[in-house]
TrEMBL record:
It comes from Micromonospora jinlongensis. It comes from the Bacteria. Residues 596-731 form the Ricin B lectin domain. CDD domains: Sialidase_non-viral (cd15482). Pfam families: BNR_2, Laminin_G_3, RicinB_lectin_2. InterPro entries: ConA-like_dom_sf, Ricin_B-like_lectins, Ricin_B_lectin, Sialidase, Sialidase_sf. Residues 1-38 form the signal peptide. The keyword Signal applies. SUPFAM superfamilies: Concanavalin A-like lectins/glucanases, Ricin B-like lectins, Sialidases. This is Ricin B lectin domain-containing protein. Keywords: Signal.
Amino acid sequence: MDHHPLKLRHPAARAGTAATVALLLLLSLLVPASAGHAAATATLDYPVNQAFNGSSTFLDKSADVSGVANLTQGAIAVRFRSTSTAVAKSFFSASHTADDSSNLSFSLNGGSVYFENRENGAYATQVTSTGGPYNDGVWHTAILTVGSEGTRLYVDGTVRATHPSTRFFANVRDLNGMWIGRNVDAQGSQWHYSGDLDYVRVYGTALSAGEISDLSMRIDYTIPFLDLKDDTRRQVLTDRQAGQYLGHPDTVLLDDGRTMFAVYPMGHGTGQIILKRSDDGGRTWTGRLPTPASWATSKETPTLYKVVKPNGTTRLLLVSGLPASPGGFKTAYSDDSGRSWSEFTHHFADAGFSGFVAHATLVRLKKADGSWDFRYMGIFHDGGYNNWKTYLTFDASGNAVWSTPTRLLAAHNTIEKYAGLCEIEIIRSPNGRQLALLARAQNKRTNAMVAFSNDEGNTWTEPREMQGALMGERHAATYDPATGRLVITFRDIIRNSVSNTGAWVAGDWVAWVGTYDDLVNSREGQYRVRLLEDFTPSVKSGDTGYAGNVVLPDGTFVLTSYGYFDPADTSYPYIMTVRFSLKELDALNGSFDPNASYTLTNRASGKVMEVAVAAPGDGGDAVQWADNGGLHQKWSIVPVGDGYHRIVNRRSGRALDVASNSTADGADVIQWTYTGGANQQWRITRVGTYFTITNRNSGRALDLDGTITDNGADVVQRTATGATRQQWSLS
């Protein structure tokens, strides 16, 4: 299955695109709609995070051996990094130290991953991985799983060896020793691991393919794929100019929850900065607003932030870097909600700082007691992939003060340069006590990376790869106010090979939906979304994806990016806005929140289904009307089993019903107190980005009667034909 169905960039390859997309959409409906795969619980979980010298260092875990000695099936997962060419370098082992050659051992043999299970020299299992070599100095995940189907050895999510043996720990009698970083037998011989171990985990049950995918570092992804590229209801043209490159926007939402500003350059990361405003949450945008003269001197992609000053007022802050001499970065601001703006102020000119994508993030910090500080950390990078942090504070007069930049990841310089980390996004954990950074991996040797800080960004864990589901550039993350999930937008990057760093292509403007916990535990997340398809006319394609990402108080995400979105005219990119809620995307993914309120809008008429205000009781007629936001136009969708749902009016609490249990075409649809009858149960089936709603009793679909554009047109059931009058959106 091609998890990147839309990267068929050249005309000759596009013939298969529609079929591939259709297959993916169908398959996505078959994937459970939970937030990623259910995480397996480890029986033993060792967060090792340690280097081993190959001769003497190890961790003795013999005290825990009784917890696994009787396991007849299960799994072992190890994340390792090594350059050792020696054999029998054991990640993890368990032995009966009084017996000769009675052990279970998971090791690195030269460049291969090796597992053995033997009792008194008799091998129950021996497997050696194909592929590799895996002693190449980069992180790998090795997983051995043993179940009723035998033994399977995975490296980085791919099956690399199998064996029919179903033996696990219980095969070795009288286990009395267990170690991380060495193996021991009765002759006194020891085999020590050489390299780094991130973790070792032992599971009491065999792992499923989905669980293995979550634990492994994939360059592709297996979570569902949703496609909004043709859903024009969600799309707003923000700006387009013939003969002019418009790109790299950023946006900010004001405190009123509806007013937005967007900034972007007239050129590829350089040029006059354009300013626009939306007064209705991104539904419409003004023309280009007047800007200070110095904004024409911008040399980088501008970024826009909202900053709270010590006096309690809100400042809108514009930042633009200078990658070439004299370097540093420039800032401008508005203290009157965007009605007027300052000229640029230049910071750190001729100070040796090349300001690329300044500031890729600006995160508010906390004090030691957990309260908010009036201190902000901004991040930019230079051409050598040094990432720099500078702190914004305010003096007693309320003037902004920027600290001299210092390295953000100096302690991890090797991986920072190896991966080419840059364009860092920083988000705070839901509990407020941790920061996570998401970094573009420019060199394409690795996936995009993540690291964590528990001291407000002073120190960071070593950056590690994220799943392929998050492989991309210029991540921008925002939490959903209703569910606490993350929406992260970025430019998709498709790596077609781990070893060939040139085998990649830039993709479309996409978003990832998942949880902060998914980032911490290296899970794939819930689903991916294509927001718009990009048709950049170049070999690597994908000049898109730098985006503003804000969410309105009602949970509507407003994302604004640039790209070559018009396949008929790929001369210059332009700016588009896409709006959605996770409630809507969850519905497309086959999951409905029984506590949410849905509006059902007919595709053909654009009007919504309601129960007439004058008929709130049993028998009240279902009709359509122009949307006015009333509760009589809102519905709950509650699962009843077997793929069916009851659809309940939010005003009356009564269920959508087919009158008199009729199975006839044209039978009236009404509301009635819920009795559990099949005539009150409905199957909701996705058709692209719309749905057909079919009655369980009759097998017929919701439809409209009479002149379907009229207010008051009756809602009835009819044999499904696929007509647009039988298709409904859920929002």
